[in-house]
Amino acid sequence: MTNAPASQNEITAEIEAIEADAAARVAARVAAGGSPELQPRRDYAPYRSSLLRHPTHELVRVDPEEVERVSPAFGHTDVNVLESDLTIQHAGEPIGERMTVSGRVLDGEGRPVRHQLIELWQANAGGRYVHKRDQHPAPLDPNFTGVGRAITGDKGEYSFTTIKPGPYPWKNHMNAWRPAHIHFSLFGTAFTQRLITQMYFPGDPLFALDPIYQSIADADARARLIGQYDHSLSVPEFSLGYRWDIVLTGPKSTWMESEGADE
Amino acid sequence: MSEPTPALQTPSQTVGPFYGYALPYAGGPELVPGHHPRAIRFHGTVTDGAGEPILDALLEIWQADENGALMRELGSLDRDGFTFTGFGRCATTIAGHYTFTTLKPGAAGAAAPYILVTVFARGVTHHLFTRAYFAEDAALHASDAVLRSLPADRRDTLICVSEGVVGGSDSYRFDIRVQGENETVFLDFDA
Ligand SMILES: [Fe+2]
């Protein structure tokens, strides 16, 4: 395609049209006892990169074999406990609003996912990643890399110390900006529970404009990606705190991941 | 502690383009060292709906060992060179190519062995699962629930191309076409 990049107004109109359609269909389906739309759409035109990167065939539903019902084991020999503090990886303190992000990793029954790997990565306070393909002219911070890892505890709990990432521009359309977010990667007890996602911050004015956040057409499902400010997690004279619990798919009694997501 | 209460799942979001300094790790693509006497090369190209290579995909594989057993060994992130953990992670090159060094999984009972492959990429809002089976196990494929359910042309997208011995190791090619002609079969687990 050689089309000129869309304007934000055009993208926003596309987002709103899909959301209105989804809202009507979800309401009808939920009223009939079905599932709300829990996952992003794979074919989501406002997010231009999805156009050529979604399968056109329906996914084939299968019962998992043992390979899919178990997960690799990770433990404290894989991850140093210091890797959960992103503010101590260099000689000096990183620039930015210091915070902790804490929560629990649970399965669909609310049971803790214990002793499993959780990885995160993020931009610095200026919205710049330590990645060679991120060339936007915000400063790198010599005291911040933005990568952390941890193993969840006995109750599925995790806690990272980091700084609040900044929003950043990208090239999906003219003057496109991502809301501030932290990327998370999670494993469950079964490989079917594998999840990579992003955590956002409350009240971000860019939510309505962002085709990645909005690729989840259901507003309630999107809201599950927002960490909540929790003053009890703040440390006097040191840091603010956000709480974000992460719920993986499964076991079998919960809604299927893709029901209705790609109709 | 309160009783566990069911909760709705946290949605997926794309891995984006900037995971490269965070998720790949030294030894991620080498489940066994290349000099292992039974190492295989498991590789291929990931392409999009225009047939262009996807140069910012991240692949994970998860598989049984040579005896068909699944591992509970630690050490996937910090390999000791001897322990087989069954897990690997590899980012694609600028040619959209990935290469793992691993062992061919063994059959557990009468089930056809395969490598579970997970694809993450910019533009992929929710990761894609697929399975890589091996042509020489054709006798077991007839009873495999997934392969049996597929028309022949789609079934073939799940079977590695055997390339014989390349550089001293058996080589298997598993190209992944995310969209379009010969689109790879992707799976949704009823789990
Ligand atoms: Fe990002």
Description:
The complex is a heterodimer of chains A (263) and B (191). Chain A is globular and about 50 Å long. The relative contact order of chain A is 0.23. Mean pLDDT of chain A is 92; it is low at 253-263. In chain A, a hairpin with an 8-residue loop joins strand 8 (181-186) and strand 9 (195-200). Chain A is built from three helices and twelve strands. In chain A, the strands form three sheets. In chain A, strands 2, 5, 10, 11 and 12 form a five-stranded mixed beta sheet that branches. Chain A is α+β, with helices and mostly antiparallel strands and 263 residues long. By secondary structure, chain B is mainly β. Chain B has one domain (19-177): Protocatechuate 3,4-Dioxygenase, subunit A. Chain B is 7% helix and 30% strand. Chain B has helices at residues 138-141, 145-149, 152-155; strands at residues 40-47, 57-62, 87-91, 97-102, 114-121, 128-134, 159-166, 169-173, 176-177, 187-189. In chain B, strands 1, 2, 3, 4, 5, 6, 7, 8 and 9 form a nine-stranded mixed beta sheet that branches. The longest helix of chain B is centred in the last third of the chain and has 5 residues, at 145-149. Chain B starts with 39 loop residues before the first strand and ends with a strand. The complex binds fe (ii) ion. Fe (ii) ion binds at residues 178, 181, 183 of chain A.
